[in-house]
Amino acid sequence: MADTKIIDYEFSYNKAAHLNDALRHLQEKGTRILAGGTDLIVRIKTDVEKPTGIIDISDVEELQSFVIDGKVEIGAAVKLSSILKVPVIRERYMGLYEAIDSIGAVQIRNLATLAGNLCNASPGADSAPPLLTLEASVEVASLEGENVEKRVVPLREFFTGPGKTILKSDELVTKIIIPSIDSDSGSAFKKISRVKLDIAKISCAVYLVAEGQIMRDIRIAVGAASAKPKRAESLERELKGKKFEQGLLEEKANLINKDISPITDIRSTEEYRRNVAPVLVRDTIELAWKRAKGAE
Amino acid sequence: MMIPVELKINGKDYSLNVKPNELLLNVLRERLNLLGAKYGCGIGECGACTVLLNGKAVLSCLILAASVSGQEITTIEGISENNKLHPLQEAFIEEGAIQCGFCTPGMVMTAKALLDENPEPGYDEIKEAIRGNLCRCTGYVNIVKAIKSGSKKLKERRKE
Amino acid sequence: MSKKEYFILGKDYPRKEDIARVTGKELYPSDISLPGMLTGKILRSPYPHARIKRIDFKRAEAMGAVCISYKDVPDTYFNQRLVSVPKATYKDWQILSDKVRQVGDPYAVVAAETEELASRAARAVEVEWEVLPSYLSPEESLKAEGELIHDRVYLEDREIPIEKNIACTREIVEGDVEKGFKEADVIVENEFVTPRVYHCQLEPRSCVCRPEPDGGITVWPSTQALHNTRILLGQLFDIPLNKVNVVRIPGGGHFGSGIHTNSVIYLTVAIALKAGRPVKIAPSREEDIYDHCRYPTRYTLKLGAKKDGTLVAGEMNALVDIGSHHIQAFAFLGVLAGWWHSLYRLPNMKYRGTAVYTNKAPTCAMQGYGAPQVTFGVETTMSMLAEKLEMDPLKLRLKNYVGLGEIFWGQGPSVRSTIYSDGVEELLTKGAELIGWKSRPDPKSQTGRFRRGIGMARGFHTSGTGAPVPGEVKDYSTAMVKINEDGSVDLLTALMDHGGGTLDAAAKLVAEEIGVPFEKVGISPADTRSTGYDVCTHATRGVYCGGGAAHEVARMAKKILLEYASRILNAPVDALKTMPDFERNEGIIYVDGMPEKRITIAEVAQTAMNNDWGTAIAVKSIRKVHCPPAYTAYFVEVEVDTETGEVKIKKVVAGSDAGVVVNPKMAKGQLHGGFYRGAGMALLEDTDYDLETGKLTNKGLIVDYKMLGSADLPDPEDFITFFADTYEPTGPLGAKGIGEAALNPVPAAVAAAIQNATGVWFTKLPILPEDILNAMKERENG
Ligand SMILES: Cc1cc2nc3c(=O)[nH]c(=O)nc-3n(C[C@H](O)[C@H](O)[C@H](O)COP(=O)(O)OP(=O)(O)OC[C@H]3O[C@@H](n4cnc5c(N)ncnc54)[C@H](O)[C@@H]3O)c2cc1C
Ligand code: FES
Ligand code: FES
Known about the structure:
The complex is a heterotrimer.
Chain A (H helix, E strand, L loop, with lengths): L11 E4 L3 H8 L4 E4 L5 H6 L7 E4 L9 E4 L1 E5 L4 H6 L1 H6 L1 H8 L4 H4 L4 H7 L7 H6 L3 E8 L2 E8 H4 E3 L2 E2 L6 E7 L6 E8 L9 E10 L2 E10 L6 E2 L1 H7 L6 H7 L3 H4 L10 H23 L4
Parallel strand pairs in A: 1-3, 2-3
Antiparallel strand pairs in A: 4-5, 5-10, 6-7, 6-10, 8-9, 11-12, 12-13, 13-14
Chain B lengths: L2 E7 L2 E7 L5 H8 L18 E4 L2 E4 L11 E4 L12 H8 L9 H14 L5 H7 L11 H19 L1
Parallel strand pairs in B: 1-5
Antiparallel strand pairs in B: 1-2, 3-4, 3-5
Helix pairs in contact in B: 2-5
Chain C lengths: L17 H5 L15 E7 L5 E7 L1 H5 L3 E3 L21 E2 L7 E2 L5 E7 L2 H10 L1 E6 L6 H5 L10 E3 L2 E3 L5 E9 L2 H7 L2 E9 L12 E5 L5 E5 L4 H12 L6 E3 L16 H13 L3 E3 L3 H5 L3 E2 L2 E9 L5 E13 L5 H15 L4 E10 L5 E2 L6 H19 L3 H8 L6 E2 L8 E2 L5 H12 L14 E13 L14 E7 L5 E5 L8 H13 L6 E3 L18 H28 L6 E6 L4 E6 L2 E7 H10 L5 E7 L6 E13 L5 E11 L6 H20 L35 E5 L22 H13 L10 H12 L2
Parallel strand pairs in C: 1-15, 13-14, 16-20, 18-19, 25-26, 32-33
Antiparallel strand pairs in C: 1-6, 2-5, 2-7, 3-6, 4-8, 8-9, 10-19, 11-17, 12-13, 12-15, 17-18, 21-22, 23-31, 24-25, 24-30, 27-28, 28-29, 31-32
């Protein structure tokens, strides 16, 4: 039986001051990155993971950056609650804002990071759907000899399965990069969960660009409904370039079930997820539309 | 492996050596005799272990003590000045927001962090702010009321 | 007897414990730390049903740990719950056994210098298991072919035969049901299912024990029953009771999970005795969740009524999956019938209850003790009957409810008493007005995605378990009151306060009776050596029975005080009155009709001391011969999203008939809390087991035992509470109980509100969005 009161074994602990430092420690086998720890510590306590070393990146200077100049870059050590405080995020990236705001509770968001949410790679990671619709990428760093090597990976290629990403054990996400968004865009995020403080039964994010009554661009992503968070491409194709109409949404929303492959777990059933997916998608599109039209 | 840790807790400096696997909650409770923060779940779900880290509400059951060296921690023991209760504490008593009291320290700390940031929260903001604090006794009604009335008291006290 | 103006009752004061609790200074069992103390860890079974073939502590002991298994402890059979009399108490527990009966069942204990070391030592214990076939549902249990869960169960000293894992059964018949149903014009019959809710008291049940040099023990446990804990520990470890001192310490919530002496308590004692040092065991949440839960029920309920709405007959058949042990399933089967039969008059009734063992966490009382389970079915059936009879559901209830002057037996067939106060009509009328009952929607004509629904249910709980003739349940309390030399008062009782203000209520009753300001009454620290027996603070008996004893004893102490005063004032005792003087913060004694002839209580007490007359002090055990029904009614408004099945609670109106309300703010708090837990039972709480592994599907982690949170509940303004204006003539100064009544009708009321919105009656709890969606689809498809 797990023991969530204590961690009864010892591991090595290091706090990195610089990226280089962090990457060096990461080369040791069995070492795990600790950003906010809200996933990692729980996994250790519940016997899911047993790292032999922990490298704490919360103080790494290079990972604290928060850049907004057209595109948005969020460093891997930036706390979720800090992201929520940025006016641009609240005003222009409402889908992302709502998703982050729905994560855990304030005490969690004061510790947790966006990179941690993505690297944990839960199919229900709330920040993933909005970031997928924003076509975000992650910058990944590793050490080649003495040099820091970096590559940029589109988020849609990042997840490979439940709890799995393309990251190698010595790689670290340094930041999340969100390309600039259209001025006529609107976005939204909604999730259905057992109670407010909960991982989603199913979640949905929508980013769309309005041109008159036309949805010039629409991107939809769904969480907790497949092995990994993913875009709903068939539905997107059906809606893109179409006139925004209730009737159209009602008619097409069911297509979402082609894009997802939900399962039955402790939070809900496959059947329920399939039943509500079209409803949730419709609701989220409507909200994003209203926002794109400046009506909300 | 022992790690030296410097902490400012409730305004007082402490230096101690901790093992990497020691959790802040257990260090507060067992080493420093600060018993106000409680264990309720150990996995971030109940908020009973809430303390303030540099003024922000966090869960001490999910924090390695070694990771917060050099930082400032406030616990329930540190919020009443010169034996005068914090307005929130007064409000909790007046509104009947305390039953068994096991959630109270964590609840008050979360509420304090809220009011420090948002001095006049509405009911929705209060309910959202404490959604990570489990109270199995009160049904939250009197707690929400107490935080509201605490915010008014705090405003008055600040005027004084 | 009538209601009078009180000085103290009905007014709100800060509770005496509040300052300690709001500053983090209150100590709970898990906070206690003693010099030389070790920390213990309980080893818990990974299998639902298995036998230990070999257990080896060598490696753990080499790490410095003290260890015990079944080989190191007495092998007595007992029941953790000592509330019932011995002839009704089934004994199937042992301190530790070579057989485990559920995942999480304790099989050994280790203790070491630190928790970390204890935990590692626990991992170092080697065990070889013989895994047995397990039974994870009552249906499987009843078909048992292999080894039964229990081979030996005792009633007193008699070993009783166990067949097919049936723990016990009960049948109760009154009148002639067959004849009754023949007279009925309408009959409604359904099967109801209620969940295995986990108490989730915020502090996992914990304990500290210090062995004393004289061979005794001092114990700081999470418990609702100081004296029963002491008696059980004395029996188990063969220690005379004068050397078993159980100390009152607040628990971080109980909700019924501490009526019995949880295994953590005697296991702490066992390991402390072995170690010869103080030991604390403060289990993790995962351990606690395998330790106790609410009795789940599955029952068919059939009610028949005449055209005019008069109930004529009822039949109920209940199956209870009690898990791995008896924590008084026999009493539980009795109250299931009692709650049912005492809600509405039933001249003809037939009841059969069967309790079945399974390899799951043991079930025990949780707020309501079967009443929420039964009230759900009965209230739902009453509403269905009303529908069929085309009668107003409130009218049907008022016509049939068991009220003033009638005899009821809520706490089971052996606890019968007469009702002397009854606010039901007021609760229903006023509640209906406050929620807007008349304008509630017609479920048949509702359209649109979001639908509003208003539902109601009523219920009650007994204030204690007292009755004119003692039955299966023990029920008495002891109190001591003494008037100190400065006019202040000490109240000493083994009553427990779970957070609802029970001790303050007792102190208020004492203050009111003696005539001193509330602050003048102190609640003495209590332990089992200094207090007389009190059965337990359960069954909504705190104020009525425990407070009742305190009040009665205060009257006795006051009598002595007045006798002293009469010597000083030169006036007969009968002419003397007392009252608090709030300005001067003291109590006054005066001659009735001559208010200038007065003296302070302090002066009397001092004069008595200086003249060697003695202290005005009294102590007595008091048994209440009634257990008046504390009635409640809930009216709930919800909004259902018919496309996602999600339910939002929009408004709550809660009415309570608690007699004279001693602590208004605390009493309202009981209604808030009762509603919250009841709504959780209605909408989401349950514990399921993996049928392969026997483990909880939530793995013991509350991340998957969801409870409603602050953000899932309505604003304070949308939660309206009110109290019926009643006076309970058998109660202390007119008071009766509230606690469990605050939950009992809630699941039914929530279900009724959902029905009003969706047109579907749900008979299985919890009602998940998944269920609502399915039901809506079924309805649409005809
Ligand atoms: C009570 C509670 C409620 C929660 N509710 C939600 C919720 O509603 N929705 C939701 O989506 N999540 C929720 N979570 C999960 C969690 O809080 C989030 O996933 C959080 O964002 C993780 O961030 P972190 O910084 O704490 O990650 P950590 O725990 O520090 O790390 C998570 C994982 O990512 C790895 N990692 C971290 N940073 C990096 C990096 N820069 N590069 C490479 N690997 C890295 C770590 O090694 C670890 O494996 C909840 C957790 C708790 C305890
Ligand atoms: S103990 Fe930390 S959140 Fe529950
Ligand atoms: S008062 Fe008991 S948990 Fe909140």
